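Incident log entry.

Two folding requests arrived from the same account within the same minute. Monitoring flagged them as a possible duplicate submission, but the sequences differ. Recording both here for audit purposes.

Request one:
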Amino acid sequence: MSDRLALIEKIGEVVQKIVNPPQVSEQAQKWQEALQIMRQLNDLAKDIAMQDVTLKTLATALEETHGKLKALTAAVILSYLLIAAVGLLFFLLR
């Protein structure tokens, strides 16, 4: 009978721990908060790295576009000069 009573008490203790779990210690809670902050910082670092790569890609594209724009501007200026030269030539040959 005492074995059954001890077993019932043991089951009662287990059920009590399940129903009312022991509180997490303050130190463990601080460690969990620190771990969460570290994960957030890691995510932030990844985001910053991705933005850096994106900015470098955009800068490269902008440099290429600037070079093409300079070449196009030079071509337009030369075409205007050519039109002016042809017009001057027709004017002088009249």
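Request two (distinct sequence, not a duplicate):
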Amino acid sequence: MSLHCQRIEPPHFTPDMPWLVLLHGLFGSGDDWQALCPLLSEWPILRVDLPGHGASASMRVRDFSEMRQQLALTLRVQGVKRCWLIGYSLGGRIAMDFAASCAGEEAAGLLGLLVEGGNPGLMDGAQRQMRVVRNVFVMSLYPLCCRTGAVRGSLPI
């Protein structure tokens, strides 16, 4: 099953045009890109809801390998043959992983990346474990912040 996404085609759309594929950050959805889309109105846009987010909330992946497969499937199902991956935070990391690992048709069709606030991840096992502990703590605060109206910027992240 492919990921949920929203297609936005410009009036002069042709199938050979390169797409802008927008990948949101953690806790987000494709709707997070809504304010940017009018500025990109000359391009076909694919706003993707990543697994566990938005309308893809019921979908799960175990690792980046499965995420790459889901993204590749989604691009195929949507008929996206050439694209730029544009990612914020988690979406940026997914874009970098996809670019570093893709081959064949996907590699030929990937024109480039634009990443904001993303990084390739921690290489040291101890640092990764500390990040997991910290993220579990921050996620435990998330429901409380939503109930009290606190903004995400006030979380210790």
